[in-house]
Write a structure and sequence with these properties.
With about 325 residues, the protein is an alpha/beta fold. The chain contains ten helices and 13 strands. The protein has a single domain, classed as 4-Layer Sandwich (Purple Acid Phosphatase, chain A, domain 2). The protein has a six-stranded mixed beta sheet. Strands 7-6-5-12-13 form a five-stranded mixed beta sheet, covered by helices on one side. It holds the Pfam family Metallophos. One of its GO terms (molecular function) is hydrolase activity.
């Protein structure tokens, strides 16, 4: 098997198997939900069955946030031998400080043969300690005058950086049948819960751009394919769904408080083995929000707050 590695793109020359990685949808009504302090306690995701397979394995992980002591300890506790021949995709948000970033990436490189990484917003912050913002991205990042948070100029600027890789991408498309792309930011609004479901309702405005989705489609094809997969991060919601022919996966470690509520599906399933022995893994299960939207249509015109969100704002 030949493995081609390019920035933000991992591909394989072996023909994909007709695997049933999209398992039967699990209805949200089957989940047992505990309401604790106005928050839902979500089910624990099961580890990938490919995690113990032989051959080339690709694991995915995002949003490590190792500035939290608990998260750094989680990384340190990863086995030092088990992943020695494997690839790890890190979809951004490793740490906010240079020291923690270097320590974390060194620990990961000691455990995996290859570590592929794309920066997240937290990795790029130049923040001043003690300052508090509703969303630090608007204050912690400084842009030149021609770039603005108020329009799509930033998205266009960063998307244009991918143009220099077109020759490499063309070569991969011509020689490989299985391609994994990855980003930190979210390429589609459908990969995030609706505004009324969120404690922070402005989240959908700062998670990604249409430019990213167009770029992904230029690699995988407008219609996608059974072997097209994109890994992302940023929102801390575990996610696994197929939209218009592309499988979208998020496997976040997230913040300690979010793991306690299993907002990210817990931590026993991480890092997630998405590819092994010539095939992609079965679908993440149970995967709270993507399972929900597999059986419930999005209702953007519905402005009624979800019960847990309404309780939260009534308390405050």
């Amino acid at each position: 098997m030949v493995v081609s590695i390019a920035p933000y793109c991992l591909s394989f020359s072996q023909q994909t198997c007709n695997s049933n990685y999209i398992s039967k949808h699990i209805a949200l009504s089957k989940y047992r939900r505990d309401i604790r302090r106005g928050c839902l306690r979500r089910p624990q995701i099961l580890p990938s069955t490919l995690g113990d397979a032989v051959g080339l394995r690709v694991f995915v992980l995002s949003d490590l946030h190792t500035d939290y002591t608990e998260n750094m300890e989680w990384v340190k506790c990863l086995p030092t031998v088990r992943y020695k021949n494997d690839v790890l995709i890190v979809a951004g948000d490793v740490a906010e400080t240079y020291k923690n970033f270097i320590v974390t990436m060194s620990l990961l490189k000691d455990r995996f043969e290859h570590v592929l990484y794309v920066p997240g917003n937290h990795d790029l912050w130049c923040r001043h300690e003690g300052e508090i913002y509703a969303c630090k991205d608007f204050k912690a990042c400084k842009w030149s005058k021609e770039l603005s948070n108020g329009d799509i100029s930033l998205a266009l600027y960063f998307d244009a950086m991918n143009e220099k890789n077109q020759s490499v991408i063309k070569e991969i498309q011509n020689t490989c049948n299985q391609i994994i792309t990855f980003s930190h930011f979210v390429p589609r609004q459908e990969l995030c819960p609706e505004k009324r479901m969120l404690f922070y309702p402005k989240l959908p405005k700062i998670i990604g751009s249409d430019c990213l989705e167009f770029r992904i489609r230029s690699i995988h094809g407008v219609e996608g394919s059974p072997s097209a997969c994109h890994v992302f991060g940023h929102t801390h919601f575990c996610w696994d769904s197929v939209l218009h022919g592309i499988r979208y996966v998020q496997a976040p470690l997230a913040y300690p408080r979010e793991r306690k509520r299993r907002m990210n599906g817990g931590d026993k399933w991480l890092p997630f083995c998405i590819y092994s022995h010539g095939k992609f893994s079965d679908r993440l299960s149970p995967c709270y929000w993507s399972d929900y939207y597999s059986t419930n249509p999005r209702t953007p015109h519905n402005t009624q707050l979800a019960p847990w969100v309404a309780r939260f704002y009534n308390q405050t």
